[in-house]
Structures are given as structure tokens and as C-alpha cells.
Write a structure and sequence with these properties.
This protein has 194 residues and is an all-beta fold. It folds into two domains: 108 residues, Sandwich (Jelly Rolls); 73 residues, Jelly Rolls, CATH 2.60.120.10. Helix content is 0%, strand content 61%. Strand 14 and strand 15 form a beta hairpin. It is globular. Keywords: Plasmid. InterPro entries: RmlC-like_jellyroll, RmlC_Cupin_sf, Uncharacterised_HutD/Ves.
Length: 194
């Protein structure tokens, strides 16, 4: 069965970071209402205002994108730091290794996608919508998040007008075509079985 859900930024659930260092804004989670210890997948945003370590999530893979701000450098599992900015492709890494963040110049807001390793896998694609473009849904769970700007999504007679940080969640729509119209960076998230 196909299910469409439009998620508005002013309805997202706010909660403290697992390590207590800040606040996360939960966009969507499966199963619905799951705690940080037992989700299958989770999509969230967070504002990072100070340098410091990331929370550890055993058995989880994560992908990070920068939605707002000048970026941050991530030292992942002892490797040389990698600078991640708004213009960069999303960065995927294990959520159960030591990660330390250093802000490039002021606070940032990031988009965080996490899936349980061995059960699920995910992919995040950053797309600059400028006009109208068509995208094929390639996974059983597919979410489009609008960055700065406005986008209208059309799917099977459904129209969804998205403003900044609003999202469109399509479940069970593999193979469908979705039209995106407007002007905004969008983040397309695909989640499927491993």
C-alpha cells in the first residue's frame, strides 16, 4: 500500500541530543515514536553551536548534510578532518565510531539520516531544484526535504507545497515518478532493506 505524508517543520518533535550537548529536531522516525535506542531509521536536524564530540549510536550508519551555516570539519575515527559545507555532497560514516566536530565559522544546522546496519541501508542525494525536474522513487521509503526556498511536489495527483525544512514522505511508491518544481536545494532520502 502506498502512503503519502506531508511533514511540516513547525510540527517536528524536539528533543535533547543523546549526549546532552544540544537539541535535535526529529523529522521522521520508524517505528513512529521510537526512542533513540530502538529506531529502525531516523531523519532529523540539529543546530551545532559549539565544537565537540558526536553521540555514539551502536550498529547505526549515518549521513550528514549541511543545511545552513558555513560548515564544519569532522574528524572521523582518528582520520584527518573533512570539511563539510552546504555545497558538498552528503557525507556517510558509521555512527558508532568516535567523531569530533569543529565549526568552520559560526553555528550550523545539519540534516542527519540514520539507519540500523544489517537491516536497512540509505542514500541521501542533494539536488538543486531550479524550475521543474522529475525524479524516480527507487526505495520503499523515500523522503524529500526542502532546504531554503519553496518546492511543489506532484505525485499521482497529490500536490504538496513545501517551504523551508518541510518534507514529503512516500512509502511503498517504488518506481513512481515525482515532479519537483520551484527553486531550492532539496535532499532526497532513500531507505530500503539491506
Amino acid at each position: 500500500m502506498t502512503r503519502v505524508t506531508v511533514l511540516k517543520a513547525d510540527t517536528y518533535r524536539r528533543m535533547p541530543w543523546k549526549n546532552g550537548g544540544g537539541e535535535t529536531v526529529e523529522i521522521a522516525v520508524s517505528p513512529e515514536g521510537a526512542a533513540l535506542s530502538d529506531f529502525y531509521w531516523r531523519i532529523s536536524m540539529a543546530t551545532v553551536a559549539v565544537d565537540g564530540p558526536f553521540s555514539i549510536f551502536p550498529g547505526i550508519d549515518r549521513t550528514l548534510s549541511i543545511l545552513d551555516g558555513n560548515g564544519m570539519s569532522l574528524a572521523i575515527n582518528g582520520a584527518a578532518p573533512v570539511l563539510l559545507t552546504q555545497g558538498d555532497d552528503p557525507l556517510t560514516f558509521p555512527a558508532d565510531v568516535a567523531v569530533s566536530a569543529t565549526l568552520a565559522d559560526g553555528e550550523i544546522t545539519d540534516l542527519n539520516v540514520m539507519t540500523r546496519r544489517g537491516s536497512l541501508r540509505h542514500r541521501v542525494e542533494r539536488v538543486d531544484v531550479n524550475g521543474t525536474s522529475m525524479r524516480q522513487v527507487v526505495a520503499s521509503t523515500w523522503l524529500a526535504l526542502c532546504g531554503h526556498g519553496d518546492v511543489v511536489l506532484e505525485y499521482d495527483g497529490n500536490h504538496a507545497a513545501l517551504g523551508p525544512c518541510d518534507a514529503f514522505l512516500l512509502e511503498g511508491g517504488e518506481g513512481a515518478m515525482v515532479s519537483l518544481s520551484g527553486q531550492a536545494p532539496c535532499y532526497l532520502i532513500s531507505i530500503e532493506g539491506a
